[in-house]
Structures are given as C-alpha cells and as structure tokens.
Amino acid sequence: MSESVTGPATYREWVDLLKKFGARENDTEVLDTAKIGTIVWQQVVAERFMQRIVNTINGRIQSASQTFQKQMNHTSGEEVDIIKPLHQLKNEYAKLIQLATIPAIPEDSQQQLLKMIDDNRHSLQQNLETSAKSDRTGKLASLIKNNRVDR
After folding, report:
1. What's the CA gap between 93 and 86, in Å, rounded?
2. In the 3-class helix/strand/coil scheme, how is the chain assigned residue by residue?
3. Mean pLDDT, each 10-residue run in order, the chain (151 residues)
4. Does the residue 6 lie in any domain?
5. pLDDT at position 39, please?
6. Do 8 and 14 meet the contact criterion of CB atoms below 8 Å apart?
7. What distance in Å separates the CA atoms of residue 15 and residue 17, rounded to the nearest whole number?
8. Is residue 2 part of a domain?
C-alpha cells in the first residue's frame, strides 16, 4: 500500500521542510513535497514565510559558493576538475529556482525570488570571468565561459 504524501500546510510544517532543504536532506523529495504544499497567504504569515525562503536560498548559495571555492583551491588544473564544480553550482541554482517557483508562492513573490537568484548567478559568473583573466593560458576563462553558471 502506498502512503498518500501531503505537502506542508502550516508555517511550522514549512519551517521544518525548509530546514531539510537548507541542510540538503534529500532535495528531490523535499522539492516534490514543497510543490504540493499550501499556505494561507496572510500578511504576517506571508512576510515570515518569504523571509524564511530568502534565508534558505541565501544559505544554500553561500554554502555552494564555499564548496565551489574549496574545490577550485584543490583542483589539479584538469578540465574535469574545473567543469564538475561549475556544473554543481549550476545544478544548485536550478534547485533554488524550483523552490522559488513552488505553487504555494504567489507569482509576484516568485518573480522577486527569481530576480534575487538571477542577480546572484550573474554576479557570480562575472566574478568568475574576472578572476579567470589572471590565467595566462586562457584555459580557465574558456572553461568558465563555456560552462556558465548563469544559464
């Protein structure tokens, strides 16, 4: 017998789910559950809920950036050692976009979250390209441009 999965409906249930997402506890399951969740969109609850979402997204971005930096600090210079962390960053942003566009969030709030994520992706890409200019071979710049995190 299969259990019927229900999404979060109360602020407390959302907090628990977002904590799991923040801790990277089974992202696929968490995002699937979030997609079927609901919340009563009243001013106080909506503000707290959105702040919790923003904090979760920012926490994941910060953690992903730190992981990326560690990976780049220990790279052997091989293409795969550079491309893999770039793809991991790109995948992280894709998960954040999924969270930002769950049906429980109204369209205007989704757009605000997407803009925040997009601005961060573009800024990161620009920073990566700027940093890569110090590589005399041009190899790093080419890899970064061909494996963009902002697309």
Report:
1. 11
2. CCCCCCCCCCHHHHHHHHHHHHCCCCHHHHHHHHHCCCCCCCHHHHHHHHHHHHHHHHHHHHHHHHHHHHHHHCCCCCHHHHHHHHHHHHHHHHHHHHHHCCCCCCHHHHHHHHHHHHHHHHHHHHHHHHHHCCCCCCHHHHHHHHCCCCC
3. 72 97 96 96 93 98 94 85 94 98 97 98 95 89 93 86
4. no
5. 94
6. yes
7. 5
8. no
What phi, psi does 90 have (nearest 5°)? -60, -45
Residue 151 lies in a domain: no
Report the domain count for the chain: 1
Backbone angles phi and psi of 11, in degrees to 5 = -60, -45
CA dihedral 25, 151, 69, 62 (to 10 degrees): -50
pTM of the model: 0.91
Determine the residue type at 109: S
> From CA 100, how far away is CA 95, in angstroms rounded?
9
Domain that holds residue 16: 11-146
* pLDDT attached to residue 2: 40
